[in-house]
Each structure stands twice: as structure tokens, then as C-alpha cells.
């Protein structure tokens, strides 16, 4: 691979759905032709495609994978796969005005989907025999289906750019019909060895098939890991994520676009706290590699290319203690285990964590006292009910209850501010918001407020109003 310290850039799904904005604001961005290169683009599937392939990220509505995994729907997944072909070729129709190019794009994705259909039919037939269990193959099926989305968007983007005179190169990491399964780093080294970054623009699939199995650890955050390892393996000077919004002091849809400000600067510690809430700037494990290799990460708004965005580095600390962002998650369940036998008995928390791990339920936070342990989990009601049943078996004498809540956090690289807790609690009390639980760690990077689910937006507005808005002019200076 030939390079002079290039950038590696990830384009999110919503941005990918607007090809003109991607081309004009990201790929071209006012550059002359010779300046177009020395960049690697890792792309997500078009908006909504992965939901159709797997399941809807927010509602849980089943896609092809969920229907296939459900033993009761033997043929529903096949019908869904047929609908998927129409969905993806309709996207091609919007992108390609040239009938020959559309035909080429349609042929590519149809071949992939029909190949997957044949594979799933064979697998279903095989698993009709008792010696073969479908559950053992579901993760592989999930990975194979996920890869279709990124292959589709990457192939289309490379083809369209080539038509427009840019020397784009489709780099397919999905492992389609590969003969061997390599570790991720080795796969990436092989893929980029033949790429000349001085005259080629690689368009890379966000999904990479590898020995580690990215979905086993990251599930739908796999594209961030691919992006991160590409940056590390190719020794990028900077990694950039292009989203449809700025990384701002709060959600502008809740607080108001006139009241929020782009962060401008922050560190990987803050990015980890955001990831914990499900608002990923970058997955913590993906950020770890870049942090260790001192690769700065920049988050930019696709639709405001003139703005420098937010730069995330390992060593940044705000000049003076301050809250940088108010963020939260309202899809949280509190699972409370009350058992008087816990008092003085070690190991209860470990037993609860084993149950959560068994059902792959991720917890955001927890609190404990003498006889009660509460975990705040980011999961669906179906999974929570399974967890509760298992906990009742594990703790037959315990009272186990669940409640839908919201968690709102005040986060900053240094929030060691005298009186910040009193100021925050007063702001919520003034709005008649009841605090159900409160967490603040000695590390002084976040304070978590647990409130009723219906108080979520009101809490964000109140905390942003008292902790950030009075200092907005200072944030604007940092962002500039």
C-alpha cells in the first residue's frame, strides 16, 4: 500500500442514503482531482437496510434474520428476502440513471441475495436432521446477512464514482466465497497491500468477515470496529466519522437547535460514556485501538462540510472543569432484586451478572445497598421478562421487580465543579422532576440521573439549561 499519512473516513447509513451530499460534501469537498486521494472510505449500509436484513433496531420488528431464526416461520423469511431484492433494486433505480449501470448494480446485489437464499435453504434442510442444531449456525447466518447491506452500498458508491471520473476501488471485506477465514488484522493487511492510495479511492464494506466474528462482540456496531482497525493497520493520520448531525451539547430536537453547540473538542473518555448510553460516537473497543495508537478521531456533519466538527483525542482535558454534553437513554429497564439474605453474603451481584450475560443483556449502570441490587439495562421487554424468570429461579426468596425508566447523564472530560450536584438537583426539583436514583463516580466524568421515562426530555432540557447554556459562548470559542 502506497501512502503519505492518509485519513480513514466512515460514512453513516443516513448520510449514505444521500449520494449527492456524500459526493459533494465528503468525496469532493471542493478538492481538485489530484487531492481526491490519500483517503479510505468505510461505508455503512443505506439507511433502513440493516433493519430489513436483521431486525428493526428500535422496534424489534423482524427482518430476514429474525424470521429465519424463528422456527415457527419456515417460509416467511424467503418471502422477506424477495421483498428485500425489490427494496435494494429500487434504491439502485434512484441512484443510477444509466440503464446499463443499474443493470450491473441490480445483478450484483441479486446474485448475492440469491446466493444467501440457496445457502439458507440448504441449512434449513440440514437442520431438519437431529444431529444438526440451527442455533449453532445462527451467528454465522446473521453475519452473512449483515454483510449484504454494506456490500450493496460500497459497490454502488464505487460504481457511481467511477462513472463520474473518480478512480474508486470497491474493497469487499464481507468474505463472499472466500476460501479461508483470517484474523481481522491479517485480512485488512491483505486487502490494502495492493491499494495505491496516491491514485485510488478505496470504498470499503463496513462489515468484515473474520476469524474473531465481529458480530459476536459488537453486534450492529461492527462497522465501527472495521473502521477503527483499518485506521490502525494502515497507520492513518486521522480517523473521521461523517454523521447526519454534529456531536453537540445535547439533542437539538429536544433542546432546540438554537441552544445546542457542537462540542469542538473532547476525549475518548467522554466518547466511552456516550457509548455506554447507546449514543455511540465510537464503540469503546473500537476507540481503544485508535487511542493506543494516538490516532485522533473527528466527528463531522455530512451536511455542514465547512465546519471542522468535533476532535476526539486521548489527552484532551477542558481548560477548566465543565459539562460538555447532556445525553441519555429512555429505553431503559430497572431490574431490582431485593433479598434480605444478600446482607453480608458476597457473590450475589456475580450471580445476577451471569444471568444478564446468559441472555446477552447489557447494563448501563447499577446501584446497591445492604439488601438490594438494581441493574439498569438497555434491552427489550421480551429479554427482560426472560431475565426476570431466570433471576426468580436463581433467587427463590427474593422480590424481583422491573420498571421502565430513563437515564440522563451530564458528561465532560473534567466535571470536578463544586456545587454541580446541588445545582443539578435544584434544576430538576424546580421542574418537579423526581430523581429515582443518582450515580456519580470519583473519576468525575459523568453524573447519571435516573428519572421516570416520561420525564426524559424535560430532564435533558433542565440540565442543559443550567449546566451548559449559561456558558455557550465559551463552547463556541472551543468549537471554533
Task: Give a description of the structure.
Keywords: ATP-binding, Kinase, Nucleotide-binding, Transferase. Residues 403-464 form the CASTOR ACT domain. It comes from Marinobacter panjinensis. Residues 7-301 form the Aspartate/glutamate/uridylate kinase domain. Pfam families: AA_kinase, ACT_7. There is one protein chain. This protein is an alpha/beta fold. It folds into two domains: 7-244, Carbamate kinase (3-Layer(aba) Sandwich), CATH 3.40.1160; 325-471, VC0802-like (2-Layer Sandwich). Helix content is 42%, strand content 19%. The strands form two sheets. Strands 3-4-2-1-5-7-8-6 form an eight-stranded mixed β-sheet, with helices on both faces. It has a six-stranded antiparallel β-sheet with strand order 10-11-9-12-14-13. Helix 6 runs antiparallel to helix 7 (138-163). The chain is globular and about 65 Å long. The two termini are 35 Å apart. The model has no long low-confidence stretch (mean pLDDT 91).
CA radius of gyration: 24 Å
Instruction: Measure the end-to-end span.
Output: 35 Å
Q: What structural class do helix, strand and pairing data support?
A: alpha/beta
CATH architecture of the largest domain: 3-Layer(aba) Sandwich
The largest sheet, given as strand count, sense and whether it forms a barrel, is:
8 strands, mixed
By CATH, the topology of the largest domain is Carbamate kinase
Beta-strand content estimate: 15-25%
GO biological process, one term: lysine biosynthetic process via diaminopimelate
Keywords: ATP-binding, Kinase, Nucleotide-binding, Transferase
Family: Belongs to the aspartokinase family.
Enzyme class: transferase
Amino acid at each position: 500500500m502506497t501512502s503519505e499519512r492518509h485519513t480513514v473516513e466512515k460514512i453513516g447509513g443516513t448520510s449514505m442514503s444521500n449520494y449527492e451530499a456524500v459526493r459533494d460534501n465528503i468525496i469532493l469537498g471542493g478538492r481538485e482531482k489530484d487531492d481526491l486521494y490519500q483517503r479510505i472510505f468505510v461505508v455503512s449500509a443505506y439507511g433502513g437496510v440493516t433493519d430489513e436484513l436483521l431486525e428493526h433496531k428500535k422496534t424489534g420488528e423482524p427482518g430476514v434474520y429474525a424470521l429465519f431464526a424463528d422456527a415457527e416461520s419456515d417460509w416467511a423469511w424467503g418471502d422477506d428476502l424477495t421483498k428485500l431484492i425489490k427494496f435494494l433494486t429500487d434504491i439502485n433505480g434512484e441512484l443510477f440513471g444509466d440503464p446499463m449501470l443499474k443493470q450491473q448494480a441490480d445483478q450484483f446485489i441479486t446474485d448475492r441475495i440469491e446466493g444467501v437464499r440457496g445457502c439458507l435453504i440448504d441449512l434449513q434442510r440440514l437442520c431438519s436432521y437431529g444431529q444438526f442444531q440451527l442455533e449453532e449456525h445462527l451467528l454465522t447466518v446473521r453475519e452473512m446477512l449483515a454483510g449484504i447491506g454494506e456490500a450493496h452500498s460500497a459497490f454502488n458508491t464505487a460504481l457511481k464514482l467511477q462513472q463520474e471520473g473518480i478512480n474508486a476501488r470497491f474493497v469487499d471485506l464481507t468474505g463472499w466465497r472466500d476460501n479461508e477465514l483470517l484474523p481481522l488484522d491479517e485480512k485488512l493487511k491483505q486487502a490494502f497491500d495492493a491499494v495505491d492510495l496516491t491514485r485510488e479511492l478505496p470504498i470499503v464494506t463496513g462489515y468484515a468477515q473474520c476469524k474473531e466474528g465481529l458480530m459476536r462482540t459488537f453486534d450492529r456496531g461492527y462497522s465501527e470496529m472495521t473502521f477503527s482497525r483499518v485506521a490502525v493497520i494502515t497507520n492513518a493520520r486521522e480517523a473521521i466519522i461523517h454523521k447526519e448531525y454534529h456531536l453537540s451539547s445535547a439533542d437539538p430536537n429536544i433542546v432546540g437547535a438554537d441552544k445546542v453547540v457542537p462540542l469542538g473538542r473532547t476525549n475518548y473518555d467522554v466518547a466511552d460514556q456516550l457509548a455506554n448510553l447507546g449514543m455511540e460516537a465510537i464503540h469503546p473497543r473500537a476507540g481503544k485501538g485508535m487511542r493506543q495508537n494516538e490516532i485522533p478521531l473527528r466527528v463531522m456533519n455530512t451536511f455542514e462540510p465547512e465546519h471542522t466538527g468535533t476532535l476526539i483525542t486521548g489527552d484532551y482535558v477542558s481548560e477548566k472543569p465543565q459539562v460538555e454534553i447532556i445525553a441519555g437513554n429512555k429505553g431503559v429497564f430497572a431490574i431490582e432484586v431485593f433479598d434480605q439474605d444478600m446482607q453480608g453474603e458476597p457473590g450475589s451481584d456475580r450471580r445476577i451478572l451471569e444471568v444478564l450475560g446468559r441472555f446477552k443483556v447489557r447494563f448501563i449502570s447499577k446501584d446497591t445497598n445492604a439488601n438490594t441490587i438494581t441493574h439498569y439495562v438497555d434491552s427489550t421487554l421480551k429479554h427482560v421478562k426472560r431475565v426476570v424468570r431466570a433471576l426468580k429461579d436463581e433467587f427463590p426468596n427474593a422480590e424481583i421487580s422491573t420498571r421502565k425508566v430513563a437515564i440522563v447523564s451530564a458528561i465532560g472530560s473534567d466535571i470536578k465543579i463544586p456545587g454541580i450536584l446541588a445545582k443539578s438537583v435544584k434544576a430538576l426539583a424546580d421542574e418537579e422532576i423526581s430523581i429515582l436514583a443518582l450515580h456519580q463516580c470519583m473519576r468525575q466524568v459523568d453524573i447519571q440521573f435516573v428519572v421516570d421515562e416520561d420525564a426524559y426530555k424535560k430532564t435533558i432540557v433542565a440540565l442543559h439549561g443550567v449546566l451548559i447554556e449559561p456558558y455557550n459562548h465559551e463552547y463556541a470559542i472551543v468549537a471554533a
